[in-house]
What we know:
Blueprint: H1 2-9, E1 26-34, E2 45-48, E3 54-55, E4 61-67, E5 70-78, E6 81-90, E7 94-100, E8 110-113, E9 122-126, H2 128-132, H3 139-143, E10 149-153, E11 159-163, E12 171-175, E13 178-179, E14 200-205, H4 209-212, E15 219-224, E16 235-243, E17 248-260, E18 265-276, E19 280-281, E20 284-285, E21 291-303, E22 307-321, H5 331-339, E23 357-372, E24 377-393, E25 404-421, E26 425-440, E27 451-455, E28 458-465, E29 471-490, E30 493-515, E31 518-529, H6 533-537, E32 539-542, E33 547-550, E34 558-572, E35 575-601, E36 604-630, E37 633-646, E38 651-652, E39 660-667, E40 678-687, E41 712-722, E42 729-735, E43 759-769
Parallel strand pairs: 1-7, 12-15, 33-36
Antiparallel strand pairs: 1-4, 2-3, 2-5, 5-6, 7-8, 9-14, 10-11, 12-13, 14-15, 16-17, 16-43, 17-18, 18-21, 19-20, 21-22, 22-23, 23-24, 24-25, 25-26, 26-27, 26-28, 27-29, 28-29, 29-30, 30-31, 31-34, 32-33, 34-35, 35-36, 36-37, 37-38, 37-39, 39-40, 40-41, 41-42, 42-43
Amino acid sequence: MKVVLLASLLFFRGMALATPSGPCGLSLQVMVSEQDSFHAVPGMVVWISGKEPVATDENGQAAFFGLCRGLHVLTTSHVGYDPVTMQVSMEASDTINLLLPPASINLEPVVIRAGNLRAPLVMDEIVGIGLFETRGLSLAQSLDRVSGVRTLATGHGIAKPVIGGLHSNRIVIVNQGVRLESQQWGADHAPEVDPFMAGRLQVVRGAATVRHGPQAIGGVVLIGAAPVDDSRRLHGELHLGAFSNNAMGVVSSRLEGMLIPAWNINWRVQATHKRGGAQRVPGNWVANTAMHEANWLVQAGQHGRRHTLTAMVSRFSAVTGLYPGAHTENLDDLNLAINSDMPLYQSSFSYHTDRPRQEVSHLTAKWELDLRWNNSHQTRLLLSHQENRRDEYDVRSHIAFPELSLEMGTTAANMAHKVFLPHDLVWESGLDASFQQNINHPSSARIFIRNYQSAQPAIYTILQWEKSPVWTHELGARYDYWWFESYYRQGGVLTRHERVFSHATASVGTVFRPRGNVGLTANMATAWRPPSPNELYANGLHQGVAGIETGNPAFDAEKSLNMNLMIDWTPGSNWGLRSSLGNNVIDHYIYLQPVLPPALTINGYYPRFEYRQTNARITTANLGLFLVPLARLRFDLEADMLWARDTHRNDWIVMMPADRYRLGLTWNPLPGSGAENAWLTLALEHTARQKRIPRKNENNIAADYAPPPRAYTLLHAEAGWTNPLSGITWGLSVYNATNVNYRDYLNRMRYFTPESGMNIALRVKIPLNRGDNG
Length: 774
């Protein structure tokens, strides 16, 4: 029976939750330059069959998303250049460079095709319709549809992405070129990112430490903004969303255009407001799980013949209620809460957030300069500063101040220089430097993480060689130095603790594409990561997870050898296969181990957790298969599997993702070039029960407070339509359509409450175009 069920599940995976590698989920980057000077050509109007025209930005770039496999006609138009019409064969997402001669010279344009993988990385991307279907969700929820990516949650309002079983400080999140520095406080702190400000979401699986530093031991999330279209003075878009489960409303608006045409100065402003009430599980409301989020961004840019200058300031702020039923007064209540199928704390619907709750804010400022010295040399300078604040309000208190108040500031600088050498060689070298300081506010009644400061200089170099359209090779090396000092007062005496780590890393990768429909990507990288402050110094109650956490200041740095292999095979337009394997061997792997029995504090009983260190081996396997039996009907299959072993104890590692299978179908009801303007998807997602868990210890004590929850199967549906006349896009989504009562193994609050029930989402995207040219 299990075999029959699995075979059925492996047949119905839908494109709604698939990675955008399908026949109508491709992207094309067009880069236009002058043939003689190599100067970018801004304002070039580019058409592609079935899509609205796009003007190239100040870098001469235009992007098209949601393209189908097959032949497309690309046309360009610009004063001073002859129009170009050419056919582009799309089998995968691609990049082409157009080198155009002036109109007076009767020459054909030169086309340089960069290929869909410009670096030997295992990468997935969410763009176009796939990105629209995530609007209103958190960053982790948006990325959850990518193969190999899961969600680590702490309740109903806080979640972060898990890539290959790794999360938090092992995943680097780069938001609009700036590395997010806010994950030092523990696993219950969600990334402060507004997905509405993203033009694309990219996930790099496997170590990418050479490009992004030590904490990219597990992967990288790249959040790229859509380029500012300064061909008009005023335009943009408005997003509206409504979600049924917690009666959440979302509004997000973006406006942009040309500010001073004579000086080529453009601008962008964006704002998002989100408010939701208590979450609902099947049969009950979850008390105190309302949320409120407000974000904004202001940006200005200026471009010339050889430079582009960008300045940006953004702010993210959120208030999230925490379930009070996780705070129990005695051991019997704690055991009763863990063993109950439903939340014990009864509630009704409310938008109010009471104690316990978490308030966070994140301010980012950046200044970026791109210089093109000549045809062979480019330099990028980036300066950024981030300010993070986190306040935690305990469940029982008679004061208005937060019991825990932390502030962290990070100043960073990056300089990267690219040299375009003969024989299709590209050499990039760079310098990174950052300084970070964490301060406990004087009003803090408890110190969960000590005050600390750290400095992190680094140097790296990467050499890429496109030997031919068949081969691309890449070799990289990096050296990082990490100085860390914590300090605190006890009994009037100032105590300091200093740690210094340094290490070199290297990576080598190859892309082999013997034919247009077959690709092989191989990557091997060494990686390392110094222990994070919470792993070193955590000591006490962690409100976000309603548990006691303890660190160890003697931890060594993690060191790993990561290998990844991906095969992409599309023999025809009606079916294709994508498979990847990964193996990550990590010495001194740090993990959070549940420790029984629970701890008694003045506020009651709480589960205990200790950070520990061992040697680990994490093996991943991801399989994707699509089938198009009819012109507008598509079936998808995905299977994600992971094995995480403690090689020191010869046992499984706690809190690792269970196997997951996704299947479904996509139907495009409109014929011809309008197929991508309407869609209907059904998806079935099955998550197995996690059986790869640590065994009981020598005293027959379990390794966790509750066994892994049972397997569950969810049904999701998506439908949408874009009006070709107005450009307005409508979308309707139904998550957990059968209202399944389930718990997820990766949710730290699974001891106390199930996951959310059925949720119906309505989305609208409205273009805001004034229509005048700059």
